[in-house]
């Protein structure tokens, strides 16, 4: 007992020498602490939708089973990109903002919501849209100021990294529901609206101190099992109309970010090429350690593209070996795919993420 106490005391002394900290009441932060905030959709939601009234959820098995052994609200079999990035950045898993009783925010918070889009019209009433995610972020800022004081809260938000993965649903919804918003615009005008609203949101975060951003480009949505299963004749083709929109969005995003960099002092970003990452694995799964890149692990129908995965329906099939698959359900990649992507963008070269990689954003 005594030696343990001596050891702990020594450890504490050692820790305080090698990792200088700053304390506010009972909260102590290492001097080089970098928080991590996440905005977006099901690619990055770690459980916010568990706490809203919606049918857009993943809080039932087999979601979560591979890593957590229980459903967490993550729309995959295990961890998502932000979980792997947090680990690389020596942070704990970043909690959903709506997690009851969660008010630490020192390490960050996750505001993402399954089904959410940039536009308020996208699944209105069923999701936490981007604007509401921003309002939650602003509420959190107020709380942080109370806790840490004005100046330290500002420093924390200045040094933090902001991951934004949104837009998928703005393009997906018009092809999967009877929503007519897209139909009244040309593809160019619609993409302009999405990118325009996204730009407004980035500027809001910038105003609150945000300087370092990670953007995930959109994946090949026209080729996910859900969409392929809807193509008449079951030819294996992707949906070209959707592919065109996604490519247009990615192109516009890659143009608007350098503009923001030149307009906003200190703005730094990493734009990650999720599109090529997924396309390469859909076409050549075996090159990347998968055996199946086109059929999902969990669902029903052609390509298991009918989104029936989970215990709410007993009419779904579940694959035997999830690590063989690129897609877990009709839309979402597996934990293994997310892990590969997180590793690539963490230390990646500009052909997968640039101008900065994530390691550089967290360390400088
Ligand atoms: C769209 O509307 C038509 C006719 O009202 C209906 O038959 C169809 O099921 C709807 N599709 C979706 C995806 O909601
Ligand atoms: C934002 O989206 C709305 C539709 O939700 C649209 O009317 C508006 O023009 C968009 N704003 C920008 C700056 O593009
Ligand atoms: C990216 O560049 C690296 C090193 O320059 C190379 O090894 C890798 O194959 C490239 N990846 C792609 C997807 O082009």
UniProtKB/TrEMBL annotation:
<dbReference type="InterPro" id="IPR044552">
    <property type="entry name" value="GLIP1-5/GLL25"/>
</dbReference>
<comment type="similarity">
    <text>Belongs to the 'GDSL' lipolytic enzyme family.</text>
</comment>
<dbReference type="InterPro" id="IPR001087">
    <property type="entry name" value="GDSL"/>
</dbReference>
<keyword id="KW-0732">Signal</keyword>
<protein>
    <submittedName>
        <fullName>Uncharacterized protein</fullName>
    </submittedName>
</protein>
<dbReference type="GO" id="GO:0016298">
    <property type="term" value="F:lipase activity"/>
</dbReference>
<dbReference type="InterPro" id="IPR036514">
    <property type="entry name" value="SGNH_hydro_sf"/>
</dbReference>
<feature type="signal peptide">
    <location>
        <begin position="1"/>
        <end position="25"/>
    </location>
</feature>
<dbReference type="Pfam" id="PF00657">
    <property type="entry name" value="Lipase_GDSL"/>
</dbReference>
<dbReference type="InterPro" id="IPR035669">
    <property type="entry name" value="SGNH_plant_lipase-like"/>
</dbReference>
